[in-house]
Amino acid sequence: MRRLAVSILTLALLFLSAVPALGAVDQSKLKEIKTLTQQMTSIKIQIIDKEVEAGILDQSKAEKIKNAMQERQQRIEQDIDKGEFHGLGPKRGCGRKPSTDSPSLQKAE
Q1: What's the structural domain count of the chain?
Q2: Does residue 14 fall inside a structural domain?
Q3: What pLDDT shows up at residue 2?
Q4: Among 40, 51, 56, 99, fewest CB within 10 Å belongs to which?
Q5: In tens digits, what is the pLDDT along the chain, a chain of 109 residues?
Q6: Is the dihedral of CA 51, 32, 20, 18 positive or negative?
Q7: For the whole model, what pTM was predicted?
Q8: 42 in a domain, yes or no?
Q9: Residue range of the domain that includes 80
Q10: DSSP output for 26-70
Q11: How far is C-alpha 23 from the chain's CA centre?
């Protein structure tokens, strides 16, 4: 009985000492994520510029989009500098279901 209690206590102590190590964030990986998100934002801005050149998007809307993207990138970088990363976060419109009175649904009926 004592052996069982000692074994359980030993396993509990090992588990509790391992948990902080598992939760540690690898700073070098965070730097890589920061670099990749910067590259991603840069490429998205280039795409928006090409859409303006092609006449797909007007300049004022493009500027609004680019400003929002840069603000978002700054928030991501600030979080990474704090040693946190919450993912790229939800984007507007993702997963949103159209309402039943949507013109596109009325045409389909």
Answers
A1: 1
A2: no
A3: 77
A4: 99
A5: 778 776 777 777 666 665 455 566 788 888 898 999 999 999 999 999 999 999 999 999 999 999 999 999 999 999 988 888 777 666 555 454 555 554 544 444 4
A6: positive
A7: 0.58
A8: yes
A9: 33-85
A10: -HHHHHHHHHHHHHHHHHHHHHHHHHHHHTSS-HHHHHHHHHHHH
A11: 19
Is-contact 50 66, C-beta < 8 A?
no
pLDDT of residue 85: 77
Under 8 Å between Cβ of 54 and 1:
no
* Domain presence at residue 99: no
- Residue 48 included in any domain: yes
> CA-CA distance, 59 to 100, in Å (whole number)?
32
Q: How far apart are CA 9 and CA 1, in angstroms?
A: 12
- The CA radius of gyration of the chain, in Å to the nearest whole number, is 24
pLDDT at position 3 is 80
Packed helices 59-81 and 27-54: angle between N→C axes, nearest 10 degrees: 180
